[in-house]
UniProtKB/TrEMBL annotation:
GO terms for molecular function: coenzyme A transmembrane transporter activity. InterPro entries: MCP, MCP_dom_sf, MCP_transmembrane. This is Mitochondrial substrate carrier family protein P-like isoform X2. Required for the accumulation of coenzyme A in the mitochondrial matrix. It is found in: Mitochondrion inner membrane. The lineage of its organism: Eukaryota, Viridiplantae, Streptophyta, Embryophyta, Tracheophyta. Solcar repeats lie at residues 24-110, 120-220, 227-316. GO terms for biological process: mitochondrial coenzyme A transmembrane transport. It is a multi-pass membrane protein. Keywords: Membrane, Mitochondrion, Mitochondrion inner membrane, Repeat, Transmembrane, Transmembrane helix, Transport. One of its GO terms (cellular component) is mitochondrial inner membrane.
Amino acid sequence: MAEERGGEVAAAAVEDEGRGGGIPLIVKELLAGGVAGGIAKTSVAPLERVKILFQTRRAEFRSVGLLGSFQKIVQTEGLLGFYRGNGASVARIVPYAALHYMAYEQYRRWIILSFPDIGKGPVLDLVAGSIAGGTSVIFTYPLDLVRTKLAYQVVGQSRFKNRGLYHSSEQVYQGILDCIIKIYQKNGLRGLYRGVGPSLYGIFPYSGLKFYFYEELKRHVPEDHKKDVTVKLACGSVAGLLGQTITYPLDVVRRQMQVQALSTSNEVRKGTFESLEMIVQTQGWRQLFSGLSINFLKVVPSVAIGFTVYDVMKSWLKVPSREEVAAISVVTENKSNHPSSLH
């Protein structure tokens, strides 16, 4: 009875906010997720650039190592080279993260309402996170493809052509829109979704595990430390580390499929698992974990910052807690099923 009364109070507060012209809950969740994604992605852009060059076996970066890669980028492209493709990355990650976090919250509430016996344990976060990840990928994948192609280009400025660093055999893209247009003209809509298979195979377990580990770790934090930013960063770091390690090989397959059109190789790969098998046979199983050490350096701050900024933004935007929103949903559902109780 007390829980229902609490839900009614929370519901009334939300209704008052709506009448006062407040921001709808779903918009707040989208805004919080988008800001979190943009900040987290930009903070690790240099490591993301080098990781992609390792994953796609760019010839100039196969044997120089992490520090050598940083030096080569600085020498050929300057400091801005570390952010090549980051515009496309942020343009993708803002809507992606917004959809991802919002969809997670929506799916979580829908599951609780549809299957009340499932409880609010780790299985709920695993399922809701997985479906949310798949939803986000489908809507934003072309921008991920563009980001990879732009990051794969080591030199694209005219001043480097005179230094002999520009390879005329490669397709050159001048920016996000130019890349999308050229891909579509050459391969149609299908070309914009090249590599989406391993992305979906990878995002379902990764996204689910990421939310699962994060929420599970937070459950073991003492109540008086739950709002501590340092604790949130630590939980996010471990969650990203564990989730990414398990699904990393599929990320390598995805990157190689995305840049295949840029390569002069005559290799033709038909699908995700065929590509996975071919990489193992021709490049060795270690290639499936190429760039993983860099990814550890990237994932730890990226996921940690993402989750932390999301929680901080929700607090700043006065988004009700998941328990309050769930109570609101239950009360609303009960009222719709028993309209007589309103009189």
